[in-house]
């Protein structure tokens, strides 16, 4: 049997391995110079003032919401077409999630739907850059700020993407990244929170470090000694280790190469599948330059399950991204019901992610296309 082609995977080279070994042979394993270097490099790449590394993309979302001081009685307006953590981390802080529908072509949060979903309790609008295509950030920022809320950009898919010529990272009040192995660059596990707001940066950094306050000027009892540190508010240990930041920093130096290869593969898919009946291909708006995390086609005429099963049996590791968040039993048990975001649900019924990662060869991609054609034409 031919080897399985996954829908996504990491790309590791000798420089990555050397970077990790260098930390292992050094004096720090966590909260040391590699963390500072990775945060500084990410901030520079994203053209943003502050970057706070954390232990996962989920931790980044939790930290960002905590930095907003989100809590009971507050509402977050977000998209259902995302990984569950975009919503569940807000619920973990006691907030209520309000789902708004998505744009029909990009599957990103629709600014008009977000505006209609807002109330006097809305504290945050959380957009997701689905598949690496940035959401309509200017319109969403205007909607959020007009309602007295902050804009959070869940950019787990879009590290390296640009929107109207500016890199993702400093375009919202808070932006979160994920460095899971299938993402555009990896630190094995990891994430980051980015912001241009000093107060939000301070809150985020404090929350991810167990809430510890080390600055004597901010302490309640600094007279206890130079060793003294104290906790004023709940925080968690979401720190990212030096050894992982070393890998992340090495990967970041190759982000342009990753972007370029992903773009080449997407262009080949677009050409090879452009005339295949029964498919709808992804689009990119002229004012964005995505770093494609997913190549998400839509399988028409109710054949998504047939195509999924056929490709899986042929060793093509396709995936579905994602189940609408409010379909999860967690949200069903909170009273959410199907049907509230029909555009998102229609997208989910047809969505299928084909293999896409920098080390995917042209011949392997040709195999994907060949098998997809075979199943559709069979």
UniProtKB/TrEMBL annotation:
InterPro entries: DegT/StrS_aminotransferase (IPR000653), PyrdxlP-dep_Trfase (IPR015424), PyrdxlP-dep_Trfase_major (IPR015421), PyrdxlP-dep_Trfase_small (IPR015422)
Active site positions, chain numbering: 183
Keywords: Aminotransferase, Pyridoxal phosphate, Transferase
Cofactor annotation: pyridoxal 5'-phosphate
Pfam short name (any one): DegT_DnrJ_EryC1
Keyword Transferase listed: yes
MF annotations from Gene Ontology: pyridoxal phosphate binding; transaminase activity
This protein's record includes keyword Translocase: no
Example GO BP: polysaccharide biosynthetic process
Family classification: Belongs to the DegT/DnrJ/EryC1 family.
Protein's name in the database: Aminotransferase class V-fold PLP-dependent enzyme
Organism phylogeny: Bacteria, Bacillati, Actinomycetota, Actinomycetes, Micrococcales
